[in-house]
Amino acid sequence: MENQLRQKAKELLEKGDVKVVIGYGWNKRKTHTTPVFITKPEDVDKLVFNPLCVNNLSLYLTRKFADIKALGKPAIVAKGCDIKTIAVLISESQLKREDVVILGMSCNGVVYRQELWKSGTDFKSVPADIMPTKCHNCDVRNPHIADIIIGEEVNFTPPDTPAGMVFDKIRDLDKKSGEERWGFWIEHFNRCIKCYACRQICPLCYCERCIAEKNMPQWIETSAHPRGNLAWNLKRAMDLAGRCTFCGECERACPVNIPLNLVNQKLALVVKDAFGHRAGYDEKVHPPMIIFNMEDTEDFIK
Amino acid sequence: MSSHTQHEQTGGFEPKIVAFVCNWCTYAGADLAGTSRMEYKPNVRIIKLPCTGRIDPLFIIKAFEKGADGVLVSGCHPGDCHYTTGNYHARRRWIAFKNLMDFVGIDSQRLHFSWVSASEAIKWVDLVNNITDEVKKLGPFVEYKSLGDRQ
Question: Which residue of chain B has the CA closest to A294?
């Protein structure tokens, strides 16, 4: 699979179809993968693909896209879940489909490093139970939008009802009382240090200027005070409603382990129920929060 | 006598209700209530916006931050929007926002959504009175106000 990827990347670079390939490479000690930008055909051996390739590289198609475009047309190595993000970016006119060559990787699931440490296994044979929730429910292991598909077809049928820790916890929270939920979230949000790592890593948080930095008037308190923390996290969840594709990068980047996937996936479920929309499957439909339907529910409006 | 004219004075806690209303329908409805000399609970602070589509969820969060005990959001009935579709967009946003607020555990009795047209002064008066009573029963929003206090 890696050889196929390197070969395709080499072809693309040699033919001049693309000027840069955004992909994954090893860090020095080969403990995790890191984004690499290949501009020369002879460098393609640096490209790797394995379950440790967790980063969502579509981030480089947003705020940093100008730097990438300065090099020339890019090709991007993307798993199905990353392609979902690219689809949202295209549907929001942040990107044109022809601006990027998508090297879609068939994927058997990824794994976070700390889970590997905990289970003591090697990344070459990752048991399904230590994979993140998104992989348990993945229906895009075979890339759904791609110019070139790399790897063999994967046979995997996701469960009918979303399974895994994130969805179990959402169901668990839904059963609890409002007070208990409030306690749960305040406890988590209190830890927030306002580092904005969730925003920086999110490929869909592409605003050039964020409301969190706006200070006349100041909408979100900048200090890591619980009041501002709550406002910030609610605002970000709201902004991702109907857009979040569950790449899980925000929670992975969060230095204080706030379960951001819970709140984002809760809203994704709400949007699916209310508007029948799942983000990232079709780049040609409008995002649900910018359109409306005359028949939207209004049972809560008096 | 309809409920909007009943007025009883009670001592103790008086809730602060912030109402985000649209310029064309609900504000005009509230205005009609005023010019018709209807009486209603003075707990409501009206904030007029051009359209419900202008209401960012942050407004509501900010209202709670600044000490509101309840928030009311109100605009034109579907189909009546001055800007044709502003309230449809707002409705979509509210569906998501209401669910989000429920999920983080904010009592749904503190956040109300409504359609009030320019002629519905009576509906406006009843709405404000009912919400004020409801929030009064709940008491001050101490959960939000005490955020950051050392336990």
Answer: B88
